[in-house]
């Protein structure tokens, strides 16, 4: 049974992850200090190492948390996964992915491999939801998954720069139609 | 007839654009000064306003230059456009797009609208090369183009973070197969 103390510990952890996600999105990983994060979360700075070890541990927790939010949409069979992913990219905190990406591709970036694991987990999670018949002839599942995850990343980038130019709902529909349409057409199940 | 002076002017301009592209990719737009750019280009700093007006004018020239390099690949009918785009993302200077994107999505970014124009020009340029039959039933050309440009942006992001995990050649082939395959299948021209 969870004690009150366990609950408080979990709540502190949650607040620290949320504050770090906001700050990494706003000012990047490098420029964000434990002091900033503790202040935003309203929690003593000394507890951060206790929860996460170091700043990379905290980054890992933030990425895990965001990743789970994306993948949850894909694993809930009652919802349309593409609608949910397009809904996720609308969240202010999703900007985090763009800010951290720029730092991850810098020479000798300490966060590159952490970011690479995020992409790999996205490919793994989304790849499992590609319908069997959706692969065009001669196309491997791996390349197709890179393309699918790439489309989500790049649609997010375009929408974040110019939300008025990108109709996320229509794009989610296009992604769905492309995947399901290809398999339907191949099965002779044309509408 | 171009005089020697015209040629020297063009050459200076070219060197400044190339130096600015490198520096924007390495350290971002905000942190790059005219002094840095002049030093890298080996050209007097006083000539930058003469060529470009201000720093935003120089950014515009850099983005135009990079955009032309992408779209040239699409407009050369002898080459495979997807191979050429995948070749472009391999260039070190293509990192520029990721670095500037992160700055463009910051609150009150001075470069946001310039970056939005780049995306719009990419959609316009690449959109013209979508084969007529490639649109899945019920999918508009606009949403499909956002998806196509998004795939290129997002494949670039994944490759730049972890080149060993992304086979650019296979992904270019998947993109081609997806576009051409969908139209071939619809035409009953199945292999």
Automatic annotation (TrEMBL), chains A, B:
Superkingdom: Bacteria
InterPro entries given in the database record: Homeodomain-like_sf, HTH-type_TetR-like_transc_reg, HTH_TetR, Tet_transcr_reg_TetR-rel_C_sf
Keywords recorded for this protein, A-Z: DNA-binding, Transcription, Transcription regulation
DNA-binding residues (ranges): 33-52
All copies of domain HTH tetR-type, residue ranges: 10-70
Entry keyword Transcription regulation: yes
Gene Ontology molecular function, alphabetical: DNA-binding transcription factor activity; transcription cis-regulatory region binding
A Pfam family per the record: TetR_N
Cited Gene3D superfamilies: Tetracycline Repressor, domain 2 (1.10.357.10)
Keyword presence, Ion transport: no
Annotated TM spans: none
Cited PANTHER family: HTH-TYPE TRANSCRIPTIONAL REGULATOR BETI, HTH-TYPE TRANSCRIPTIONAL REGULATOR RUTR
Designated name of the protein: TetR/AcrR family acrAB operon transcriptional repressor
Species annotation: Nonomuraea soli
């Amino acid at each position: 049974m969870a004690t009150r103390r366990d609950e408080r510990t979990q709540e502190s952890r949650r607040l620290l992850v949320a504050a770090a996600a906001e700050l990494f999105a706003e000012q990047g990983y490098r420029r964000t200090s434990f002091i900033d994060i503790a202040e935003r979360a309203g929690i003593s700075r000394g507890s951060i190492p206790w929860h996460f070890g170091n700043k990379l541990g905290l980054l890992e927790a933030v990425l895990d948390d965001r990743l789970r939010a994306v993948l949850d949409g894909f694993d809930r069979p009652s919802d349309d996964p593409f609608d949910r992913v397009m809904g996720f990219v609308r969240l202010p905190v999703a900007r985090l992915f763009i800010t951290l990406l720029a730092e991850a591709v810098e020479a000798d970036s300490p966060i590159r491999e952490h970011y690479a694991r995020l992409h790999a987990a996205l490919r793994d999670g989304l790849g499992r939801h590609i319908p069997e018949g959706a692969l065009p002839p001669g196309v491997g599942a791996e390349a197709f998954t890179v393309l699918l995850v790439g489309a989500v990343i790049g649609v997010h980038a375009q929408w974040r720069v110019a939300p008025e130019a990108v109709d996320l709902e229509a794009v989610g529909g296009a992604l769905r139609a492309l995947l399901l349409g290809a398999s339907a057409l191949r099965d002779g199940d044309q509408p």
